[in-house]
Structure formats: structure tokens, C-alpha cells
Amino acid sequence: MRHVFPCPLRWSDMDAFGHVNNVVFLRYLEEARIDFMFRLARQAASDAFTGGSVVARHEIAYLRPLKHRHEPVTVELWAEKIGAASLTIACEVKDPARRAGEEDTVYVRASTVVVPYDLERERPRRLTDEEKAFLKEYLDDSATGTVAA
Fold first, then answer.
1. What is the CATH number of domain 3-136?
2. How far is the CA of 21 from the CAs of 47, 73, 114, in angstroms?
3. CA-CA 20 to 30 A from 89: which of 66, 78, 81, 128?
4. pTM for this predicted structure
5. 44 — alpha (psi -120 to 50), left (phi > 0) or beta?
6. pLDDT tens-digit profile of 69-94?
7. Where are the domains of the chain?
């Protein structure tokens, strides 16, 4: 299962070449990740990720330019790897195919390593069983994702 987030494009997202600036894609990924971890996860487990989390790493492949328009772009994300004290979220920023037989138009493929964080103690923490259970629902079967005990 994947989380699908419609992300609006803003006029300020555009660069001098008329397309979305590469740095702005990090914002799109962040908006989708926040919706996933702080809205959906908390609906499933009320205390999921309440202690906080930090991004440890981003990897982004820019595949094609995204021109500014009024329609939102789709950000799909899923759990790629679930560790004891970290998770890797894979993402695609794209326009889904409109007709059968057509392929999605993918602008960006990315992965983000997120570390749950104890804000009070100012240090990383382990994922809770509830958080892992939530994330397993979004673990992509076709990915090489693994789940740590």
C-alpha cells in the first residue's frame, strides 16, 4: 500500500527556467511525509511519532522537469525499510497515467532515512511496536524492504 498525497504547486516554486526548482522537491517530500507520519500514523496509533523524528539522509533522482501549473502533483510514498531505530521512506513525485496502457509521468524518485527522536532527552530512540505495525501496512512488497525485530 502507498500513501498518496496531492501536493499543490506554488508560483514561488518556479525557477528562472519556468519549472519547479530542484530544492522545492524537498518541500514536497516533507509535506507528504508529515501527512503520512503525523496525520495517518496518529490515526492508527495515537502516540505514533509524537516524540519527534529527524531526517538523517535524502537521496533524490531528478528524472524530468516539472513545469508550473495549477493542478497538484501527486506524491506517493511507502516504507522501503523498517529498522529498529530508523525507517527509509521511498517516494515518487508524479502524475499518474490518465488512461489504461499509459505510464505514470515520474518527475522525481527519492528515499529519505528518518530516525525517531526523543526531543526531551535529545537523542534518537527506537521505533515502538505500534509505529512498526503502522509502517508495515505501507511496506512495499516489491521493494527490498526489511523489518527489524
1. 3.10.129.10
2. 35, 14, 23
3. 66
4. 0.87
5. alpha
6. 899 999 999 999 999 999 999 999 99
7. 3-136
